[in-house]
Amino acid sequence: MGQAGCKGLYQSLFDYKTEKYVIAKSKKVGLLYRLLQVSILTYLVVWVFLVKKCYQDMDTSLQSNIITKVKGVTFTNTSELGERLWDVADYVIPPQGENVFFVITNLVVTPNQRQETCAESENIPDALCYEDSDCPPGEPVVAGNGVRTGRCLRSGSEQKGTCEIFAWCPVETKSRPAKPLLGKAEDFTVYIKNFIRFPKFNFSKTNVLDTTDRAFLKSCKFGPKDPYCPIFRLGSVVSWTGSSFQEIAVQGGVIGIQIEWDCDLDRAPSECYPRYYFNRLDNRFSENSPSSGYNFRFAKYYRDAAGVELRTLFKAYGIRFDVMVNGKAGKFNIIPTVINVGSGVALMGVGSFFCDLVLIYFIKKSHFYRDKKYEEVRDLEVLARMAESSQQSVAPDAAGLAEQPEVQDGGSAQKENGCVCRQLLQPARSGHQGNGKVNVEQLRNLQTVEA
């Protein structure tokens, strides 16, 4: 048995096994199968290759540089500053131009401050006091403007006052103006120059249109009629976010300018151009909310005729612009093409699997197709047990039992390709039709010869 088993295993190494296909003449299942094939093929061609361009090798490691320049002038006349002309050096921070720049639109000005003692602002809760002991000397006022001197200053006969502090006096007390100081800043323009490079393909590009017309940048404005001009009007940028410039100019805000590059390098380089998107990034709270808007403070220092250092404090409200760049570039490559084609072909097998489930489980004649698809093969031991159970189920009749023929040549059963031969099956039938019984010993002899 061992040698025979090894020999059979050795011979099976050179066997070729192929699948057996069953053709089901069902129009419903056939139509379903074709629809699944068409759907998978459409997904592969339209979505995978045309939309997602999965036949390309992609580079998302974008290298970018941004230069911004704001232009525009305006005139104001206020009690704190008098008549003043505002240009780029006055209202743009930082002045050198980066991917983030701030344009001042509203101001609270506190001029001529000097370092001396004065009363803290009444708007500071930590500065309120009733007696001098409430103002321990040397301790700073929390969220205030200076350091306590130890005195509590009261106005007239009022019991409550504020602590005296050493600070830049007078302290800031004015509130934010309801009307923006630089409301005409919506007509200012910003020039955004963007350089990009995809290192994998050694491809570089800029968002400035390659033209020989020297007057192009002096006359163009970005918009639907001129989408390749890199000069943007500030009022238009804010309106494209769904906000009003005059409203956001009062308390400030943050605007995002996104530059999106999607380059198909299988085409000409001139067809690689940017797309611009504009969004408001700060949360829009109510007008009186302390979290609304965007502001910060800065000061300008100088000395008077006596050499005393003075300063003018500015609380600046305005619009912060964040320029963000991202993108990708793709170029044909055989490796992702083969991978995605192979994935699509493998996906076709899902249609066959689904149709098999419908065919053998969900239609009316499922049992018929199931019997045709799957063959049930039994060995001789199973047949012997079936014969024994059949013998026990038939009531024995000793007077009328028919003598069963003996198997004269055990080798003849072996010639029937390892299956139960007619000499074995015929007695079994006669045992059911007449009053004979199945010769179980004959089956056992046949198994011995087969082994």
From TrEMBL:
<feature type="binding site">
    <location>
        <begin position="69"/>
        <end position="71"/>
    </location>
    <ligand>
        <name>ATP</name>
    </ligand>
</feature>
<feature type="disulfide bond">
    <location>
        <begin position="129"/>
        <end position="152"/>
    </location>
</feature>
<keyword id="KW-1133">Transmembrane helix</keyword>
<feature type="binding site">
    <location>
        <position position="189"/>
    </location>
    <ligand>
        <name>ATP</name>
    </ligand>
</feature>
<keyword id="KW-1071">Ligand-gated ion channel</keyword>
<feature type="binding site">
    <location>
        <position position="315"/>
    </location>
    <ligand>
        <name>ATP</name>
    </ligand>
</feature>
<dbReference type="GO" id="GO:0099095">
    <property type="term" value="F:ligand-gated monoatomic anion channel activity"/>
</dbReference>
<feature type="disulfide bond">
    <location>
        <begin position="118"/>
        <end position="169"/>
    </location>
</feature>
<comment type="similarity">
    <text>Belongs to the P2X receptor family.</text>
</comment>
<feature type="binding site">
    <location>
        <begin position="295"/>
        <end position="297"/>
    </location>
    <ligand>
        <name>ATP</name>
    </ligand>
</feature>
<dbReference type="InterPro" id="IPR001429">
    <property type="entry name" value="P2X_purnocptor"/>
</dbReference>
<keyword id="KW-1015">Disulfide bond</keyword>
<keyword id="KW-0067">ATP-binding</keyword>
<keyword id="KW-0407">Ion channel</keyword>
<dbReference type="InterPro" id="IPR059116">
    <property type="entry name" value="P2X_receptor"/>
</dbReference>
<keyword id="KW-0812">Transmembrane</keyword>
<dbReference type="InterPro" id="IPR053792">
    <property type="entry name" value="P2X_RECEPTOR_CS"/>
</dbReference>
<dbReference type="GO" id="GO:0005886">
    <property type="term" value="C:plasma membrane"/>
</dbReference>
<keyword id="KW-0813">Transport</keyword>
<dbReference type="InterPro" id="IPR003048">
    <property type="entry name" value="P2X5_purnocptor"/>
</dbReference>
<feature type="region of interest" description="Disordered">
    <location>
        <begin position="394"/>
        <end position="414"/>
    </location>
</feature>
<feature type="transmembrane region" description="Helical">
    <location>
        <begin position="341"/>
        <end position="363"/>
    </location>
</feature>
<keyword id="KW-0547">Nucleotide-binding</keyword>
<dbReference type="GO" id="GO:0070588">
    <property type="term" value="P:calcium ion transmembrane transport"/>
</dbReference>
<comment type="subunit">
    <text>Functional P2XRs are organized as homomeric and heteromeric trimers. Homotrimer. Forms heterotrimer with P2RX1.</text>
</comment>
<feature type="disulfide bond">
    <location>
        <begin position="220"/>
        <end position="229"/>
    </location>
</feature>
<dbReference type="GO" id="GO:0001614">
    <property type="term" value="F:purinergic nucleotide receptor activity"/>
</dbReference>
<dbReference type="GO" id="GO:0006821">
    <property type="term" value="P:chloride transport"/>
</dbReference>
<feature type="disulfide bond">
    <location>
        <begin position="263"/>
        <end position="272"/>
    </location>
</feature>
<dbReference type="GO" id="GO:0098794">
    <property type="term" value="C:postsynapse"/>
</dbReference>
<keyword id="KW-1003">Cell membrane</keyword>
<protein>
    <recommendedName>
        <fullName>P2X purinoceptor</fullName>
    </recommendedName>
</protein>
<dbReference type="InterPro" id="IPR027309">
    <property type="entry name" value="P2X_extracellular_dom_sf"/>
</dbReference>
<feature type="transmembrane region" description="Helical">
    <location>
        <begin position="31"/>
        <end position="50"/>
    </location>
</feature>
<dbReference type="GO" id="GO:0033198">
    <property type="term" value="P:response to ATP"/>
</dbReference>
<keyword id="KW-0406">Ion transport</keyword>
<dbReference type="GO" id="GO:0005524">
    <property type="term" value="F:ATP binding"/>
</dbReference>
<dbReference type="GO" id="GO:0004931">
    <property type="term" value="F:extracellularly ATP-gated monoatomic cation channel activity"/>
</dbReference>
<dbReference type="Pfam" id="PF00864">
    <property type="entry name" value="P2X_receptor"/>
</dbReference>
<feature type="disulfide bond">
    <location>
        <begin position="135"/>
        <end position="163"/>
    </location>
</feature>
<keyword id="KW-0472">Membrane</keyword>
<comment type="function">
    <text>Receptor for ATP that acts as a ligand-gated ion channel.</text>
</comment>
